[in-house]
Amino acid sequence: MAPLPRRLVTEQLDILDPADPLAVGSRRDLVLVNRLMFAVPIAARLLQRHVARPPRRILEVGAGDGRFALQLARRLAKRWPGVEIVLLDRQDLVTAETRRAFVALGWLARPLPADVFALPGALGREDAGFDCVCANLFLHHFEGETLRRLLGLLSSLAPVTVATEPHRDRASLFASHLLGALGANAVTRHDAPASVRAGFCGRELSAHWEAAGFTLHEGRHGAFTQGFAAVREGRR
Ligand SMILES: C[S@@+](CC[C@H](N)C(=O)[O-])C[C@H]1O[C@@H](n2cnc3c(N)ncnc32)[C@H](O)[C@@H]1O
Which UniProt keywords are present, listed alphabetically (predicted)? Predict the structure, then answer.
């Protein structure tokens, strides 16, 4: 069967007012989507595999309301205590309650409302130096030269970049259409198949990574997730 061609469609969550009840509901649905994709355990495994020493500072790009990062912290905080995690998103969505939940785990979450392409300028001087960058359900928003530029930017910020994105194939597309039966709202019912169509397969992310001196790892993890890691050689 021919591979599913990659196609980017604007996701409704990206254009709705963040306070719109449909957007609020869809962000809640993302917790379910991430659970079905095993995104947190897959990202945690990739981070532990590729970040050799316990990190002090992590940057998540496209972090949304921070709930994905909070679940990561719940998995990693015992092994990686005292991490500062900067949560960059162009929408300002991280609540005080979420920040307190990080503190309870011994992590410090610092929201950074900014467009990813404002990096590194959007970072303060004290923000220089991350041990790793992570992204979940974010890179599939970009293609071509823009994706290449974004990955180039990330390569300059940390020795390790880890991403978990939708795996693009017909089985994932079929499964994404079943989310309505699990109670997902209209925005999620639109955005989930759109995300799969914009997702990755094979070594498509690696093909957009141009920075030299990195070892790249990419492949399908579980049924629905494309995992990617770029590790600077000799600097794990
Ligand atoms: C599908 S959500 C994923 C949120 C989170 N990573 C998660 O797994 O729950 C994608 C996020 O990317 C953010 N985003 C899209 N384009 C962006 C950009 N150019 N700069 C910063 N954030 C962006 C959106 O605001 C949204 O919160």
Answer: Methyltransferase, Transferase
- Tokens representing 205 are 């992310």
How far apart CA 160 and CA 58 sit, in angstroms, is: 10
Local confidence band at 191 (pLDDT 50, 70, 90 cut-offs): very high
Atom of ligand 1 nearest to the CA of 114: 21
Question: Atom 14 in ligand 1: which residue has the minimum CA distance?
Answer: 62
Residue tagged 């699990």 (tokens): 182
Q: Does 34 contact ligand 1 (Cβ within 6 A)?
A: yes
Q: What is the pLDDT of residues 103-161, one digit of tens each?
A: 999 999 999 999 999 998 898 776 768 999 999 999 999 999 999 999 999 999 999 99
CATH code of the domain occupying 12-232: 3.40.50.150
pLDDT (mean) for 45-73: 97
Determine whether the shortest distance from the Cβ of 138 to ligand 1 is under 6 A: yes
Q: What share of the chain is helix, strand, coil (3-state, %, to 5)?
A: 40, 20, 40
Rounded to whole angstroms, the Cα distance separating 108 from 122 reads 19
Ligand 1 within 6 A of CB of 142: no
Ligand 1 site, residue 26, Cβ cutoff 6 A:
no
Q: Is 191 in the pocket of ligand 1 (CB under 6 A)?
A: no
Distance CA 106, CA 45 (A): 20
Average pLDDT, the chain: 96
Beta strands in the chain (DSSP E): 57-61, 84-89, 108-113, 132-136, 160-166, 214-221, 225-232
